[in-house]
């Protein structure tokens, strides 16, 4: 078992208690342990962040860029080790984990470039001999709470813009997958990030959530995770002058029209629906197929699913790995069982595999459900597992109405050769991310990212849009005629 320390005040520290991390492909023995910090140690993280912010906000943007370039370089140099940690604690395949490391490095390179730019505008002023401008400055100390499904990428997505704009960050990674975030913190530390600018609070949420949220020094909270937790955070911050960014759930739809390249649609759906075992906020879980090609498309999809091997992420032959935990596995199986009781038909999968090689893992067979109606929970609620549900529709109008008939509004995709249909879909799909002839997943570091309605808050992540959340605007007027 690998022991990892956490980062507080530029030092690597332990604690009186430990949090054990398990491999979801075989949960019998822990693969790592990290400090389980106490409320007192949370207060220390904020003490150190306060000191770190005083230094970092005045640090040259060129120095910030240097640290970021160094971080990206170290992530790439350590890619094999970090990817192995992602596989071990999350269950992703090696290819998925390696891609996560590469994209995390891309975030720091991208924001290194933006850190060098000034963000502001020169304004005309009606007063004589007066020149006015506005510029962006950091908000202060940011609390970043990140999930287990992208344990390296989501911290990178939040830390890069937050730090690039001069803030200090207290990071709380998911208890199931903390080691990936610690590898990221190690790279930032080794690249020269000043002490206190980043603190990583590992531990049990039940013990440290209150001191993390209640500290009066928190200026902003950025959260990725479930709607229930996100809404609880929003309510807890409602009477405080603390800005909140939430990237929450999704019930993403892919529409396949009769003129589509069905093979391309199936290939994209396999990646979007079953990649990372369906544990992505942008995963496709609803599929609307034009009636005339429904049977043909379903046959192609089932053949593709049958060809995928379920197994541990560390095996090069694995196409779909385990879910992150026994609790998540059991939750997905309950969702499938409920769907069947409500009248859905299991076209493939639907169970936990019973073979001996899967006995101690958190596996659910890739599942496709048919005979699904819009009233069923499996059509309306996020499952967050390798489960795709199919329905037939009569044309684009019905498909768009079905896509928008949801509490969520994160991502949607359309497959068609009709340019007019493509533009209509892009205009009318009530989602923050819309794709045509490509998957609902796979957005790059410079693409603004986030959903509408219950999928998140008004603040986007990624790209230049992310800088809005992590900065406040100051307007300055100079009179030079005196």
Structure description:
It is a single chain. The relative contact order is 0.14. With 482 residues, the chain is α/β, with parallel strands linked by helices. It starts with a strand and ends with a strand. It is globular, with a radius of gyration of 23 Å. Helix 2 (61-77) packs across helix 6, helix 3 (79-90) packs across helix 4 and helix 9 crosses helix 10 (294-306). The strands form six sheets. Strands 15-16-17-14-13-19-20 form a seven-stranded mixed β-sheet, with helices on both faces. It has helices spanning 39-56, 61-77, 79-90, 94-115, 153-164, 178-190, 205-214, 227-237, 262-274, 294-306, 326-341, 377-380, 396-404, 419-428, 466-469; strands at residues 2-3, 6-8, 11-13, 18-23, 26-35, 120-123, 130-138, 141-145, 168-172, 198-200, 218-224, 243-247, 252-256, 284-290, 345-348, 367-370, 387-393, 408-409, 411-415, 433-436, 452-453, 471-479. The model has no long low-confidence stretch (mean pLDDT 96).
């Amino acid at each position: 078992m690998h022991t990892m320390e956490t980062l507080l005040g530029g030092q690597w520290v332990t604690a009186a208690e430990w949090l054990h991390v398990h491999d979801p492909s075989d949960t019998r023995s822990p693969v790592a342990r990290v400090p389980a910090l106490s409320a007192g140690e949370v207060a220390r993280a904020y003490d150190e962040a306060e000191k770190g912010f005083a230094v970092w906000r005045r640090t040259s943007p060129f120095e910030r860029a240097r640290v970021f370039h160094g971080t990206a370089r170290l992530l790439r140099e350590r890619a094999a080790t970090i990817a192995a940690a992602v596989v071990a604690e999350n269950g992703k395949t090696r290819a998925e984990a390696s891609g996560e490391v590469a994209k995390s490095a891309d975030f720091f390179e991208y924001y290194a470039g933006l850190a060098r730019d000034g963000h502001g505008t020169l304004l005309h002023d009606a007063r004589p001999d007066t020149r006015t401008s506005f510029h962006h400055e950091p908000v202060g100390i940011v609390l970043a709470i990140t999930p287990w499904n992208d344990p390296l990428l989501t911290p990178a997505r939040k830390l890069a813009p937050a730090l690039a704009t001069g803030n200090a960050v207290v990071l709380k990674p998911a208890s199931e997958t903390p080691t990936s975030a610690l590898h990221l913190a190690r790279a930032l530390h080794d690249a020269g990030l000043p002490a206190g600018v980043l603190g990583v609070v590992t531990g049990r949420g039940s013990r440290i959530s209150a001191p993390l949220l209640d500290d009066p020094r928190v200026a902003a909270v950025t959260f990725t995770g479930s709607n229930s937790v996100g809404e609880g955070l929003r309510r807890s911050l409602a009477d405080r002058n603390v800005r909140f960014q939430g990237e929450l759930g999704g019930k993403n739809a892919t529409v396949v029209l009769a003129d589509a390249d069905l093979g391309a649609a199936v290939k994209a759906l396999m990646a979007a629906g079953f990649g990372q075992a369906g544990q992505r906020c942008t995963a496709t879980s609803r599929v609307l197929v034009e009636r005339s090609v429904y049977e043909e498309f379903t046959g192609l999809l089932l053949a593709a699913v049958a060809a995928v091997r379920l197994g541990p992420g560390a095996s090069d032959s694995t196409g779909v790995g385990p879910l992150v935990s026994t609790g998540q596995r059991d939750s997905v199986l309950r969702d499938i069982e409920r769907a069947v009781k409500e009248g859905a038909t299991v076209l493939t999968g639907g169970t936990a595999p019973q073979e001996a090689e899967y006995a101690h893992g958190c596996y659910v067979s890739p599942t496709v459900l048919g005979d699904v109606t819009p009233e069923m929970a499996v059509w309306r609620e996020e499952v967050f597992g390798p489960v795709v549900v199919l329905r037939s529709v009569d044309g684009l109008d019905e498909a768009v109405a079905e896509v928008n008939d949801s509490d969520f509004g994160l991502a949607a995709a359309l497959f068609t050769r009709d340019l007019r249909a493509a533009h209509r879909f892009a205009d009318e799909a009530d989602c923050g991310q819309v794709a045509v002839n490509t998957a609902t997943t796979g957005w790059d570091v410079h693409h603004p990212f986030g959903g509408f309605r219950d999928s998140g808050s008004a603040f986007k992540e990624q790209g230049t849009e992310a800088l809005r959340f992590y900065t406040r605007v100051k307007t300055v007027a100079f009179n030079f005629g005196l």
